[in-house]
Amino acid sequence: MKSIRWSTLVILLLLAVFPLVIQSDYYRHILIIALMWVVIGSSWNLLSGYTGQVSFGHAIFFGIGAYTAGLCTTQLDISAWYGMLLGGPVALLIGLVIGWICFRLRGPYFALATIAVGEIFRLVATEWVDFTEGMQGILIIQTFRSKIPYYYLALGLAAACIYSIHTVMNSKWGYYFLAIREDQDAAEALGISSFRYKSLSLMISAFFTGLAGAFYMNYMAFIDPQVVFSLHFISIMAILVGIIGGVGTLWGPPTGAFIMVLLQETFRSAFFGMLPKWVSEAHVLVFGLLVIFVIRYMANGIVGDWGKIRQVFSGRKASPSAGSGN
Amino acid sequence: MEVLIQTLVAGILMGGIYALVGLGMTLIMGVMKIVNLAHGQLMMIAMYITFVLFDHFHIDPYFSLLVSMPALFLLGAFIQKYLLNPLLKVDSILPENQVLMTVGIGMILTEIVRFIFQSDYKSVKTSYSFSTMYLGTISFNTSMVVAFCIAVLLTGGLFFFLAKTDVGKSVRATAQNKDAALLMGVNAEWITILTYGLGAALVAAAGTLLLPIYYLFPDVGGRFTLKAFVITILGGMGSTVGAIVGGVFLGIAESLGATYISMALSDAVGLVIFLLVLIFLPGGLKKLTKI
């Protein structure tokens, strides 16, 4: 516990009092979505940033979580809140199967395989109308009218997710994950079963992403395959959250999540209505430019390259030793 | 029986175009060792170039190959020189930086096109778009046949280039071993630029050839990026012959899927094959043929 610094507690406290101070449902909503992305981004980071298996398919787990919750209502006639119990484990099990298939591949090929699996899930969810309602999607009735219960649930999820990843990364598993990322063959030679630890990493990652999906179902009360299994809006967004914040850092994805959600909202509302309407169509373009800029100039993201950024703003010349670490 | 033959014919003709898509991807993958996730988006740009030439200047899509291929060659070379090559000097935790970069490039290309042309579906309707030829009772779509023939010619040209010319040999040398090629005096950086340009030009040809019978909208690129890597994985990564076989195979499989399973799921057929190949035949068809 001693490694949790006071700054973490301050942030947590600020986030905890936020909805009590700010009365606007609009800002509460933005923060709920941002917290949900903290969970997805951090989970992605565990698999891709720490373990080095870049996933382009986190929409699979998100969608499965969301559909598990939705199907609880449409198929089993029980509350979608059971999805919060089932969504994580179901995503974890499916993650296990996907890992069994995809971990035969390394590097970019793994990334490709995850895209393919993601697209298959999207197509199946679209075409299997009897089970999933297809394109029509699943509509439920929201339990609470106030945003506050959802807010604290999202905050709890985000905190649990970050805390779990922090714990895992400080355990023996964490070191194995890093070893696999740095050099899989060397790790194998030292007796680390790369398949086993990659699977573990994927399972934890899938579990939290599935929970986030189940939360989304309960909060938004409507899902359809084009949204929750979307390559662009979920899988790629998860990657953007990770790389913009900083891959392989604990606080990178949370930072990235807040930046991305705020940016998305700013552009979608055309700078809160201050700029002409066409600006709102440009938000994906801005994401693309941001990706190129970040990869080119801040390869380790905002948190990873924080030292470098501070130097630019303080106007000091970079010393040769600085800025090269991660 | 007739339905089966008809389906196979349609599949093989489509396969010729897929082979072009796959060849471009394979070249890039072979030389740069990266997966180009902007591949379909490059194709989409070529399709829009063809569309504009047809719509505003009434140029036949087959003649616009002369514009779309060089244009995409330049675009590809630009991307490689100014966006991908500089990344080799940046260190980062994830080795997949270049792949992520291609995702960003793909997004930008799609969004720019969406900005200019909106999201509407567009198509090029030529006088021969729906004309068919008959051989016995089997019908051949004229523009598919022309497209197939041009695809074969381009593929032949590529093989000649790779096998017989000095530059082509340098490309192959760089693909085999970049460091050794450097030591032999090959300007590897220039070769990567050339290769990405060539890959883009090939996929541009595929896009242009497809246009008389297809429709286009800004997001069409993503669909072809997926197909491109299904073909590449199917053919065995980095094998040019494999890419052709993979392309034809995918064409036939999709065509069979559309006839016998369901039209809506024909896109999924390729993806399922892709997973089956990963599980049962890692290494693709190359493993079987040893080419």
Helix fraction of chain A?
over 70%
Gyration radius of chain A (Cα, Å) is 20 Å
Structural class of chain B: mainly alpha
Q: Per the principal axes of the C-alpha atoms, what is the gross shape of chain A?
A: globular
Q: What share of residues are in beta strands of chain A?
A: under 5%
What is the 3D form of chain B?
globular
The most extensive interface between chains reads: A-B, 48 and 45 residues
Name the beta content range of chain B. under 5%
Can you give the mean pLDDT of chain B? 84
Instruction: Please identify, by name, the CATH architecture of chain B.
Output: Orthogonal Bundle
Quantity of strands of chain B, as a count: 4
Number of separate helices of chain B: 12
Unreliable stretches of chain B (pLDDT < 50, length at least 5) are none
| Total of DSSP H or I helical runs spanning 4+ residues of chain A | 17
Radius of gyration of chain B (CA) equals 19 Å
Subcellular location (chain B): Cell membrane
GO biological process, one term (chain B): amino acid transport
Main location (chain B): membrane
GO molecular function (chain B): transmembrane transporter activity
Blueprint of the fold:
The complex is a heterodimer of chains A (326) and B (291).
Chain A: H1 6-21, H2 25-50, H3 58-74, H4 82-102, H5 107-127, H6 129-132, E1 138-139, H7 148-169, H8 172-182, H9 184-189, H10 194-220, E2 222-223, H11 225-228, H12 231-245, H13 252-268, H14 270-273, H15 283-297, H16 301-304, H17 306-314
Antiparallel strand pairs in A: 1-2
Helix pairs in contact in A: 1-7, 2-7, 2-10, 2-12, 2-13, 3-4, 3-5, 3-10, 3-12, 4-10, 7-10, 8-10, 12-13
Chain B: H1 2-32, H2 39-57, H3 65-84, H4 97-117, E1 122-123, E2 132-135, E3 138-141, H5 142-164, H6 166-176, H7 178-183, H8 188-210, E4 215-216, H9 220-235, H10 240-260, H11 266-280, H12 286-289
Antiparallel strand pairs in B: 1-4, 2-3
Helix pairs in contact in B: 1-5, 1-6, 1-8, 1-9, 1-10, 2-3, 2-4, 2-8, 2-9, 3-8, 5-6, 5-8, 6-8, 9-10, 9-11, 10-11
Protein name (chain A): Inner-membrane translocator
Pfam family, one (chain A): BPD_transp_2
Transmembrane segments (chain A): 29-47, 59-76, 82-103, 150-169, 200-219, 231-251, 282-299
